[in-house]
Amino acid sequence: MVDHLSKEGRSKVMSSIRSKHTKLEDKVTKELWHRGLRIRKNVSGLFGNPDIAIKKKKLVVFIDSCFWHECPLHGKRPESNVDYWNKKLDRNKKRDIEVNEYYNRIGWEVLRIWEHEITDDFILALEKIENYLKLASNKK
What we know:
This protein is an alpha+beta fold. The protein has helices spanning about 5-15, 25-35, 80-105, 115-120, 120-140; strands at about 40, 50-55, 60-65, 110-115. The radius of gyration is 17 Å and the shape is globular.
C-alpha cells in the first residue's frame, strides 16, 4: 500500500505522536488516582520511562501501543520504507525485552498492557492494572 501523504505531511503526522501524557494514559492514570492508588506517571528517572510507577513498592506498568510495540493482534508493519520500519519496530521489541529483564533482575514487578485492552474494555483493563498494583504491593 502506497502512503497517501506527502513526505512533509507524513513527517508532520509522525512528529505529533506523543510518547507520554497520551489521552489513553491520562485516562487510565486519572481513574487509578480516583480509585485511591497513588502512582507516578512517566517516571523519567527509571529505566525505560514507565508509564506508571510506584517506586516505594518497586512496581512499573507500561501501556504498549499496538503499532509501536507490534501487538500480535493489531501490529501491522508499514509497507513503505520497509527497511526503516523493520529496524525501528524490531528495536522497540528488543528494548521491551531488555526493560523487562532489567526490572526482573533488580527485583521489581512489571506489567505490560496493550493499548487495545484498554480501548476494547476500559473497566476490565483498569481492574487488571488496579489488581496488579494492589496484589504486587501486598507481596512486599
